[in-house]
Amino acid sequence: MHAPDGFINAPVSLGTGVISASFLAVALSKARSELDEKAAPMAGLVAAYVFAVQMLNFPVALGTSGHLMGGALAAILIGPWTGMIAVSTVVILQALLFADGGLTALGFNVFNMAIITVIAGWLVFQLLTKVIKGRTGIIAGAFLAALVSVPASAVAFVFQYSIGGTGTLDIADVFVAMFSVHVLIGIGEGLITALTVTAVLALRPDLVFGARGKVQANLEIRESQVR
Amino acid sequence: MQLKNKFLLVGVFVTLLLSSVVSYYASSNPDGLEKVAEEKGFLEDATEHNLGDSPLADYGVSGVTDDRLSVALAGAIGVLLMLGISTLMFRFLARRK
Predict the structure, then answer these.
(1) Which of residues 10-69 of A touch B (CB under 8 A)?
(2) How far apart (Å, rounded) are the C-alpha atoms in residues A9 and A102?
(3) How many domains does chain B have?
C-alpha cells in the first residue's frame, strides 16, 4: 500500500498531507489522555513491532503479496490516538530512510496506512466488543477490525486516485481490483492482529488498551471493595 | 526481574527476530497496490524515489553483499530506531499532562 511518487497529482497530495497533519496534531494532544509512564514503553514497542511486521510480505493470490499495516493492532494495544501516531511514525521513517513510499506521497500514505486504518479498525472493534463480551469479543473484534481496515485503506486510495490520479483509467475498474485484493490481504492482517492481541492478552492483559474495563487482569489486587 | 520489564524484553526480542530473521523469507511479489497498478497500467506513472540512493533503501544496507545479512541489519536498525524515537516521544507526551 506504500504508493510511490507520481500516482497522484500535487494538489491532492498536498491536500491529503494537510488533512493527515491535522489528524496528527489532534492525535498528539489526545494521546496524552491514553498514555502514562507505564504505557509509554509499550507504545514504543508496538511502533517497533509494526515496523518489523510491515517487512513481512505474505503471499495472498497469484503473484501478489501483502503485509500488515498495523493501524487496528496499534489502536487496540495502545489506544487509537497513540496508535495513529505510532503507525504514522513508521510510515514516515520508511519513506525517509528506506525509500519505501514516495516523499510527495507521504501525506496520503500516512492517511491511508495510519489514519483511516485506525479509525475504521477502532470503530469496528468498539462495536464488536459491545456485542460479544469478554476475551472472545476482544479477539474476534481484533480480527474483524483489522480485516475491515485494509479494504478501508484501499477505498481511501481509490477515492484519492479518482480525484487526483495522473492516469486516465476507469475508476470502477480500479476500485473492484483494489477492493478485492485488499479483502484478501485483510484476512492476513486480521490473523496477525488477532494472534498478537491474544498473546499480549495472555501475558499482560493490563497492557491492552482496548481491554480496559472489559477483561480483568489476572493478578489484580482489589482492596478497596471491602471499605 | 519485574514482570513488566520481562515482557518488554521478550517483546523486543520477538520484534528483532521478525525484522532480522523472518524478514528474509518475506514474499518478494508485488503488493496489492503495485499489482493493481501493473495490471491496470498505471505503474509506469511512478517516479524514482528522491532518496532511492539512501544507504538503507529497500530494506538493505548498501555495501553489504550478503542478502541475508543486509536485510537483517536494515531490519534491526529500523526496529531500534523506531523503538528509540517512539519511546522517547511517547514518554514526553505522557509527562506533559
Answers:
(1) 28, 31-32, 35-45, 47-49, 51-53, 55-60, 63-67
(2) 12
(3) 1
Q: Check: CATH 1.10.3210.10 for A10-212?
A: no
In B1-20, the residues whose Cβ lies within 8 Å of chain A are 3-4, 7-8, 10-12, 14-16, 18-19
First to last CA, chain B: 29
B44 is a domain residue = no
- Give tens-digit pLDDT for A39-90: 999 999 999 999 999 999 999 988 999 999 999 999 999 999 999 999 999 9
Look up the domain containing B90 and give its range.
3-27+57-95
Half-sphere exposure of A94 (CA within 13 A, CB side): 29
Min distance A52 CA to chain B CA atoms (Å): 5
Does B51 fall in a domain? no
pLDDT digits (tens, 9 = 90+) for A173-219: 999 999 999 999 999 999 999 999 999 999 999 999 999 988 765 55
Question: DSSP character for B25?
Answer: G
